[in-house]
Protein backbone atom coordinates (compact mmCIF):
# COMPACT_ATOMS: atom_id res chain seq x y z
CA UNK A 1 0.00 0.00 0.00
CA UNK A 2 1.38 3.40 -0.96
CA UNK A 3 2.38 5.78 1.79
CA UNK A 4 2.58 3.18 4.54
CA UNK A 5 6.04 2.65 6.02
CA UNK A 6 5.45 0.17 8.80
CA UNK A 7 2.67 -1.28 10.91
CA UNK A 8 2.45 -0.91 14.66
CA UNK A 9 0.48 -4.16 14.80
CA UNK A 10 -1.26 -6.70 12.60
CA UNK A 11 -4.89 -6.41 11.63
CA UNK A 12 -7.41 -8.10 13.95
CA UNK A 13 -4.85 -8.41 16.76
CA UNK A 14 -5.47 -7.02 20.28
CA UNK A 15 -3.29 -4.03 19.41
CA UNK A 16 -5.37 -3.41 16.29
CA UNK A 17 -8.61 -3.33 18.26
CA UNK A 18 -6.96 -1.01 20.76
CA UNK A 19 -6.03 1.41 17.97
CA UNK A 20 -9.56 1.22 16.55
CA UNK A 21 -11.07 1.91 19.98
CA UNK A 22 -8.74 4.86 20.60
CA UNK A 23 -9.41 6.19 17.10
CA UNK A 24 -13.15 5.88 17.61
CA UNK A 25 -13.02 7.66 20.98
CA UNK A 26 -10.93 10.54 19.66
CA UNK A 27 -12.84 11.00 16.41
CA UNK A 28 -16.32 10.75 17.92
CA UNK A 29 -15.63 12.79 21.06
CA UNK A 30 -13.99 15.73 19.31
CA UNK A 31 -16.44 15.96 16.41
CA UNK A 32 -19.48 15.80 18.68
CA UNK A 33 -17.94 18.45 20.92
CA UNK A 34 -17.44 20.75 17.92
CA UNK A 35 -21.14 20.71 17.00
CA UNK A 36 -22.50 21.18 20.53
CA UNK A 37 -24.33 24.45 19.61
CA UNK A 38 -26.23 22.68 16.83
CA UNK A 39 -27.02 19.80 19.18
CA UNK A 40 -28.39 22.23 21.80
CA UNK A 41 -30.64 23.74 19.14
CA UNK A 42 -31.73 20.32 17.85
CA UNK A 43 -32.79 19.08 21.27
CA UNK A 44 -34.71 22.28 22.04
CA UNK A 45 -36.45 22.12 18.65
CA UNK A 46 -37.57 18.58 19.48
CA UNK A 47 -38.84 19.47 22.97
CA UNK A 48 -40.37 22.88 22.12
CA UNK A 49 -41.00 22.99 18.35
CA UNK A 50 -43.30 26.02 18.53
CA UNK A 51 -40.74 28.27 20.19
CA UNK A 52 -37.76 26.90 18.28
CA UNK A 53 -39.36 26.52 14.87
CA UNK A 54 -36.30 26.98 12.63
CA UNK A 55 -32.53 27.06 12.81
CA UNK A 56 -32.18 30.86 12.57
CA UNK A 57 -35.02 31.74 14.96
CA UNK A 58 -33.96 29.00 17.34
CA UNK A 59 -30.40 30.29 17.63
CA UNK A 60 -31.70 33.84 18.06
CA UNK A 61 -34.03 32.80 20.88
CA UNK A 62 -31.33 30.85 22.73
CA UNK A 63 -28.80 33.68 22.36
CA UNK A 64 -31.29 36.38 23.40
CA UNK A 65 -32.87 34.59 26.37
CA UNK A 66 -30.03 32.47 27.75
CA UNK A 67 -26.87 34.10 26.43
CA UNK A 68 -24.08 32.73 24.18
CA UNK A 69 -22.89 30.28 26.84
CA UNK A 70 -26.19 28.40 26.51
CA UNK A 71 -25.06 27.14 23.10
CA UNK A 72 -22.35 25.09 24.82
CA UNK A 73 -24.51 23.54 27.52
CA UNK A 74 -23.91 19.82 27.75
CA UNK A 75 -20.45 19.99 26.15
CA UNK A 76 -18.95 17.54 28.65
CA UNK A 77 -21.65 14.97 27.91
CA UNK A 78 -20.91 15.34 24.21
CA UNK A 79 -17.15 14.98 24.63
CA UNK A 80 -17.01 12.11 27.11
CA UNK A 81 -20.30 10.36 26.37
CA UNK A 82 -19.90 10.21 22.63
CA UNK A 83 -16.18 9.55 23.02
CA UNK A 84 -16.95 6.38 24.99
CA UNK A 85 -19.70 5.46 22.55
CA UNK A 86 -17.41 6.01 19.56
CA UNK A 87 -14.70 3.84 21.05
CA UNK A 88 -17.15 0.99 21.59
CA UNK A 89 -18.86 1.48 18.22
CA UNK A 90 -15.75 1.45 16.05
CA UNK A 91 -13.62 -0.91 18.11
CA UNK A 92 -16.33 -3.52 18.62
CA UNK A 93 -17.51 -3.21 15.01
CA UNK A 94 -14.06 -4.25 13.81
CA UNK A 95 -14.04 -7.11 16.33
CA UNK A 96 -17.50 -8.41 15.45
CA UNK A 97 -16.92 -8.01 11.71
CA UNK A 98 -13.88 -10.26 11.89
CA UNK A 99 -15.66 -12.70 14.22
CA UNK A 100 -18.77 -13.04 12.06
CA UNK A 101 -16.71 -13.14 8.87
CA UNK A 102 -14.98 -16.27 10.14
CA UNK A 103 -18.09 -17.90 11.64
CA UNK A 104 -20.68 -17.02 8.98
CA UNK A 105 -18.64 -17.59 5.84
CA UNK A 106 -21.70 -18.56 3.80
CA UNK A 107 -23.56 -15.32 4.52
CA UNK A 108 -23.44 -12.33 2.18
CA UNK A 109 -21.45 -9.32 3.27
CA UNK A 110 -24.45 -7.02 3.86
CA UNK A 111 -25.74 -9.38 6.54
CA UNK A 112 -22.27 -9.38 8.13
CA UNK A 113 -22.22 -5.56 8.16
CA UNK A 114 -25.70 -5.35 9.71
CA UNK A 115 -25.00 -7.93 12.39
CA UNK A 116 -21.57 -6.54 13.28
CA UNK A 117 -22.74 -2.94 13.60
CA UNK A 118 -25.84 -3.91 15.60
CA UNK A 119 -23.79 -6.00 18.02
CA UNK A 120 -21.32 -3.17 18.57
CA UNK A 121 -24.03 -0.54 18.97
CA UNK A 122 -25.82 -2.46 21.74
CA UNK A 123 -22.75 -2.14 23.96
CA UNK A 124 -21.94 1.39 22.77
CA UNK A 125 -25.36 2.70 23.79
CA UNK A 126 -25.20 1.09 27.23
CA UNK A 127 -22.00 3.09 27.73
CA UNK A 128 -23.51 6.30 26.29
CA UNK A 129 -26.90 6.27 27.99
CA UNK A 130 -25.96 7.80 31.40
CA UNK A 131 -24.09 10.64 29.67
CA UNK A 132 -27.01 11.25 27.28
CA UNK A 133 -29.48 11.39 30.16
CA UNK A 134 -27.50 14.20 31.77
CA UNK A 135 -26.72 16.00 28.51
CA UNK A 136 -30.31 16.33 27.32
CA UNK A 137 -31.50 17.61 30.71
CA UNK A 138 -28.65 20.13 30.94
CA UNK A 139 -29.40 21.44 27.45
CA UNK A 140 -33.15 21.88 27.94
CA UNK A 141 -33.58 22.53 31.68
CA UNK A 142 -31.60 25.59 32.75
CA UNK A 143 -31.87 24.85 36.47
CA UNK A 144 -31.06 21.13 36.32
CA UNK A 145 -27.24 21.17 36.44
CA UNK A 146 -24.16 22.74 34.89
CA UNK A 147 -22.68 19.52 33.56
CA UNK A 148 -21.68 15.96 34.37
CA UNK A 149 -20.06 16.61 37.74
CA UNK A 150 -23.22 17.92 39.40
CA UNK A 151 -25.67 16.28 36.99
CA UNK A 152 -24.79 12.67 37.85
CA UNK A 153 -25.37 12.93 41.63
CA UNK A 154 -28.53 15.01 41.16
CA UNK A 155 -30.12 12.55 38.75
CA UNK A 156 -29.16 9.58 40.91
CA UNK A 157 -30.67 11.27 43.98
CA UNK A 158 -33.97 12.09 42.27
CA UNK A 159 -34.51 9.08 39.98
CA UNK A 160 -32.02 6.43 41.06
CA UNK A 161 -30.06 4.21 38.71
CA UNK A 162 -33.13 3.75 36.49
CA UNK A 163 -33.02 7.44 35.60
CA UNK A 164 -29.75 6.98 33.74
CA UNK A 165 -31.22 4.25 31.52
CA UNK A 166 -34.74 5.57 31.06
CA UNK A 167 -34.04 6.29 27.42
CA UNK A 168 -32.02 3.17 26.61
CA UNK A 169 -34.81 1.54 24.61
CA UNK A 170 -35.45 4.58 22.40
CA UNK A 171 -31.70 5.14 22.20
CA UNK A 172 -31.32 1.65 20.77
CA UNK A 173 -34.29 2.41 18.53
CA UNK A 174 -32.47 5.46 17.20
CA UNK A 175 -28.90 4.22 17.06
CA UNK A 176 -29.29 0.57 16.04
CA UNK A 177 -30.96 1.37 12.69
CA UNK A 178 -28.60 4.32 12.22
CA UNK A 179 -25.49 2.26 12.92
CA UNK A 180 -26.60 -0.66 10.75
CA UNK A 181 -27.43 1.60 7.81
CA UNK A 182 -24.40 3.82 8.38
CA UNK A 183 -21.78 1.05 8.45
CA UNK A 184 -23.39 -0.90 5.62
CA UNK A 185 -23.73 2.21 3.44
CA UNK A 186 -20.14 3.14 4.19
CA UNK A 187 -18.81 -0.32 3.30
CA UNK A 188 -20.80 -0.53 0.06
CA UNK A 189 -19.91 3.06 -0.86
CA UNK A 190 -16.22 2.29 -0.42
CA UNK A 191 -16.56 -0.77 -2.68
CA UNK A 192 -18.47 1.26 -5.29
CA UNK A 193 -16.03 4.19 -5.32
CA UNK A 194 -12.94 2.01 -5.68
CA UNK A 195 -14.58 -0.31 -8.21
CA UNK A 196 -16.50 2.16 -10.39
CA UNK A 197 -14.93 5.60 -9.91
CA UNK A 198 -11.30 5.25 -8.85
CA UNK A 199 -10.98 1.88 -10.60
CA UNK A 200 -7.99 0.88 -8.50
CA UNK A 201 -7.47 -1.40 -5.55
CA UNK A 202 -7.26 0.35 -2.19
CA UNK A 203 -3.73 -0.97 -1.77
CA UNK A 204 -2.63 0.79 -4.97
CA UNK A 205 -3.99 4.21 -3.94
CA UNK A 206 -2.13 6.96 -2.09
CA UNK A 207 -3.04 8.01 1.43
CA UNK A 208 -4.77 11.14 0.11
CA UNK A 209 -6.86 9.08 -2.31
CA UNK A 210 -7.84 6.62 0.41
CA UNK A 211 -8.91 9.42 2.77
CA UNK A 212 -10.87 11.04 -0.07
CA UNK A 213 -12.79 7.81 -0.57
CA UNK A 214 -13.35 7.62 3.19
CA UNK A 215 -14.86 11.12 3.26
CA UNK A 216 -17.22 10.50 0.32
CA UNK A 217 -18.40 7.21 1.76
CA UNK A 218 -18.68 8.72 5.24
CA UNK A 219 -20.96 11.54 4.10
CA UNK A 220 -23.22 9.15 2.21
CA UNK A 221 -23.41 6.91 5.27
CA UNK A 222 -24.30 9.80 7.58
CA UNK A 223 -27.00 11.20 5.31
CA UNK A 224 -28.81 7.89 4.84
CA UNK A 225 -28.55 7.00 8.53
CA UNK A 226 -29.98 10.36 9.61
CA UNK A 227 -33.29 9.83 7.82
CA UNK A 228 -33.71 6.32 9.22
CA UNK A 229 -32.99 7.29 12.83
CA UNK A 230 -34.85 10.62 13.11
CA UNK A 231 -38.12 9.28 14.63
CA UNK A 232 -36.36 7.60 17.54
CA UNK A 233 -34.18 10.67 18.11
CA UNK A 234 -37.30 12.82 18.56
CA UNK A 235 -38.82 10.27 20.96
CA UNK A 236 -35.63 10.15 23.07
CA UNK A 237 -35.72 13.92 23.65
CA UNK A 238 -39.43 13.77 24.52
CA UNK A 239 -38.92 11.04 27.14
CA UNK A 240 -35.91 12.65 28.80
CA UNK A 241 -37.81 15.92 29.20
CA UNK A 242 -40.94 14.21 30.56
CA UNK A 243 -43.13 15.27 27.65
CA UNK A 244 -44.40 11.68 27.65
CA UNK A 245 -44.34 8.71 30.03
CA UNK A 246 -43.54 6.03 27.47
CA UNK A 247 -42.72 5.51 23.81
CA UNK A 248 -46.31 4.96 22.65
CA UNK A 249 -47.52 8.11 24.39
CA UNK A 250 -44.65 10.09 22.86
CA UNK A 251 -45.47 8.83 19.36
CA UNK A 252 -49.15 9.76 19.78
CA UNK A 253 -48.32 13.26 21.02
CA UNK A 254 -45.70 13.99 18.38
CA UNK A 255 -47.56 12.54 15.39
CA UNK A 256 -46.30 10.32 12.59
CA UNK A 257 -45.30 13.09 10.19
CA UNK A 258 -43.49 15.08 12.87
CA UNK A 259 -41.50 12.00 13.88
CA UNK A 260 -39.80 12.05 10.49
CA UNK A 261 -39.59 15.82 9.93
CA UNK A 262 -39.09 17.52 13.30
CA UNK A 263 -35.50 18.78 13.62
CA UNK A 264 -34.51 16.84 10.47
CA UNK A 265 -32.84 19.86 8.74
CA UNK A 266 -30.64 20.57 11.75
CA UNK A 267 -29.84 16.86 12.10
CA UNK A 268 -28.70 16.84 8.46
CA UNK A 269 -26.53 19.86 9.24
CA UNK A 270 -25.04 18.10 12.25
CA UNK A 271 -24.86 14.42 11.39
CA UNK A 272 -23.54 14.51 7.81
CA UNK A 273 -20.39 16.53 8.55
CA UNK A 274 -19.91 14.82 11.94
CA UNK A 275 -19.94 11.31 10.48
CA UNK A 276 -17.67 12.42 7.62
CA UNK A 277 -15.15 13.91 10.04
CA UNK A 278 -15.36 10.87 12.31
CA UNK A 279 -14.43 8.53 9.48
CA UNK A 280 -11.72 10.94 8.30
CA UNK A 281 -10.06 11.19 11.75
CA UNK A 282 -10.55 7.48 12.41
CA UNK A 283 -8.92 6.41 9.16
CA UNK A 284 -6.18 9.01 9.52
CA UNK A 285 -5.22 7.43 12.85
CA UNK A 286 -5.24 3.99 11.24
CA UNK A 287 -3.01 5.19 8.39
CA UNK A 288 -0.57 6.84 10.80
CA UNK A 289 -0.31 3.49 12.56
CA UNK A 290 0.50 1.77 9.28
CA UNK A 291 -2.93 0.18 8.89
CA UNK A 292 -5.24 0.29 5.85
CA UNK A 293 -8.27 2.56 5.80
CA UNK A 294 -11.70 1.17 6.61
CA UNK A 295 -13.86 -0.90 4.32
CA UNK A 296 -13.74 -4.52 3.28
CA UNK A 297 -13.91 -7.95 4.86
CA UNK A 298 -11.29 -10.47 5.75
CA UNK A 299 -9.97 -12.54 2.87
CA UNK A 300 -11.95 -15.66 3.77
CA UNK A 301 -15.32 -13.96 3.44
CA UNK A 302 -14.26 -11.94 0.40
CA UNK A 303 -13.52 -15.18 -1.43
CA UNK A 304 -16.85 -16.66 -0.31
CA UNK A 305 -18.75 -13.63 -1.63
CA UNK A 306 -16.88 -13.66 -4.92
CA UNK A 307 -17.79 -17.29 -5.47
CA UNK A 308 -21.56 -16.72 -4.95
UniProtKB/TrEMBL annotation:
Any one of the GO BP annotations: mitochondrial phosphate ion transmembrane transport
InterPro entries, A to Z: MCP_dom_sf, MCP_transmembrane, SLC25A3/Pic2/Mir1-like
Xref: SUPFAM superfamilies: Mitochondrial carrier
Family classification: Belongs to the mitochondrial carrier (TC 2.A.29) family.
PROSITE patterns given in the database record: SOLCAR
Lineage: Eukaryota, Viridiplantae, Streptophyta, Embryophyta, Tracheophyta
UniProt membrane topology term: Multi-pass membrane protein
Pfam families linked: Mito_carr (PF00153)
UniProt keyword list: Membrane, Mitochondrion, Mitochondrion inner membrane, Repeat, Transmembrane, Transmembrane helix, Transport
Name by which UniProt lists this protein: Mitochondrial phosphate carrier protein 1
Source organism: Hibiscus syriacus
